[in-house]
Amino acid sequence: MNTRILAVEYEYLAPTTIDEVLDILAEKQGVRILAGGTDLIVKLKTAEDFPIEYMLDIKRVTALDYIRYDDQEAMLHIGSTATLSRIEKDATVREKYPALAEAIHLMAAVSVRNMGTMAGNICNASPVADSVIPAICYQAVLTLTGKSASRQVPLHEFFLAPGVSVIRPEELLTDIALPLPKPGTGAAFVKKTRVRPDIAKISIGALIEHEGDTVTACRIAMAAIAATPAYLKAVGESMVGHKMSEELITATAALAARSIKPIDDNRTTAEYRTHIAEVMTADVLHEAWKRAGGEL
Questions:
Q1: Contacts of 230 (CB under 8 A, 6+ apart)
Q2: For the chain, what percent of residues have pLDDT higher than 70?
Q3: Using CA atoms, how far apart are residues 97 and 90, in angstroms rounded to an integer?
Q4: Is-contact 199 121, C-beta < 8 A?
Q5: Which residues make beta-bridge pairs with 117?
Q6: Mapped to the 3 state alphabet, what secondary structure does the chain carry?
Q7: pLDDT score for 269
Q8: Contact in structure between 158 and 165 (CB atoms under 8 Å)
């Protein structure tokens, strides 16, 4: 296969305003949105049957290219065309949302991060999307905008199946919002791959809030274990109200491993994922607790 060739025909559209984008999405069918293209172009080159009538390039829509922290809202906002590299290097992200910066830094190669976007990583709805996992732990909320209305969807409710999400054909992901973590919060991200830039065999994120030695909130999420990224809500909540200890971490890690139903695929086995999930959950909880200022 000559990977320089796109064996499909489509009409290329390059609007410069959000209104133009929404008009196109409302009026036309078979539209595929190009933000960074690191997933879309691969699909165009490799998929045997990839329906597309229009390629809608949104990179010229400057209103979507932002990373800003709103002090009044205590909220970080990330636009649809902000690249992964920009997010990773942003001072506010590194200071207030270090697990997100960490996850993006571990994604693919520098060239991919220079082109790809977090919005694209989300909308691709891949079960292995690295940026999704810490963002779920940070309680990210997506703004999905159509021509006549917009709605907000918690990130952990966005995914339905591999490549399938709740976003409608006429909608555009216009904003990713992450609330400011409370003082003393710690969050961490870990992933297991064959080689560093590879797609994860499994990735895990955790966030812990506490008062003294007592856990007041915990959120845990995993990717690359099933058909969609997994928010292990009940597992995290099982820690709440307990004093942090090695025993609590061990029990929580074991519960996490029992709570998942991993798959076999070409990267690894369900058996391996179940085993390593317990080990990695313990590791990420240790690191999150340490970053929260806790000691064991």
A1: 221, 222, 223, 260
A2: 98
A3: 10
A4: no
A5: 83
A6: CCCCCCCCCCEEECCCCHHHHHHHHHHCCCEEEECCCCCHHHHHHHCCCCCCCEEEECCCCHHHCCEEEECCCCEEEEECCCEHHHHHHCHHHHHHCHHHHHHHHCCCCHHHHHHCEHHHHHHCCCCCCCCHHHHHHCCCEEEEECCCCEEEEEHHHCEEECCEECCCCCCEEEEEEEECCCCCCEEEEEEECCCCCCCCCEEEEEEEEEECCEEEEEEEEEECCCCCCEECHHHHHCCCCCECCHHHHHHHHHHHHHHCCCCCCCCCCHHHHHHHHHHHHHHHHHHHHHHCCCCC
A7: 95
A8: yes
The side-by-side arrangement of strands in the sheet containing 31-34 is 11-13, 54-57, 31-34
Tens of pLDDT, residues 104-153: 999 989 999 999 999 999 999 999 999 999 999 999 999 999 999 999 99
Bridge-based pairing state of the strands 75-79 and 230-231: unpaired
pLDDT tens per residue, range 22-74: 999 999 999 999 999 999 988 888 877 889 999 999 999 999 999 999 999 99
